[in-house]
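Private note to self, pasted from the team thread so I don't lose it. Backbone tokens:
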């Protein structure tokens, strides 16, 4: 850890609170596929373009797995600079466990439990992200961003869970 001490500096409190526009824009862009795939599934766009009925729903679940893996992996970055060895180990573990649990969804569950588990994973990751920001392991703006993005994703997945038929194309 000594070799990294020169890289550390006290963060400017304004940097910690001011959300970068790129993070906000890319975060919202990451939510759009959830909405578009849900709409495609609701209006059966998959069948209209020659895909198996339920494919859009399957793609929604697969996209959710990818994003849950990405969000889980953020903990790896937080762990690398965390001074507390116990919390560092917890972050490393969470960064690996989140994608593993998400990846298991299509293997061990079927509709509607796949969407239900995705919702649960996103809620747990969102809560964890807010706690990381509150404890100083992530910038303060990150907790705000993740609260908004998690709320949007969970709301979309709840709509999908409530509206979509259970059969899928995969």
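Design output:
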């Amino acid at each position: 850890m000594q070799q990294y001490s020169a890289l550390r500096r006290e963060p400017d409190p304004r940097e910690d609170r001011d959300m970068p526009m790129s993070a906000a824009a890319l975060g919202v862009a990451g939510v759009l596929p959830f909405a578009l795939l849900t709409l495609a599934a609701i209006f059966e766009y998959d069948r209209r373009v020659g895909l198996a009925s339920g494919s859009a729903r399957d793609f929604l679940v697969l996209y959710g797995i990818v994003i849950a893996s990405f969000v889980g992996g953020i903990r790896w970055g937080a762990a690398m600079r965390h001074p507390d060895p116990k919390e560092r180990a917890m972050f490393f573990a969470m960064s690996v466990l989140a994608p593993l649990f998400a990846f298991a969804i299509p293997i061990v569950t079927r509709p509607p439990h796949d969407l239900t588990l995705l919702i649960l994973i996103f809620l747990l990751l969102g809560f964890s992200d807010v706690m990381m920001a509150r404890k100083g392991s992530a910038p303060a703006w990150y907790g705000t961003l993740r609260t908004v993005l998690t709320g949007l994703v969970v709301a979309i997945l709840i709509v999908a869970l409530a509206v979509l038929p259970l059969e899928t194309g995969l």
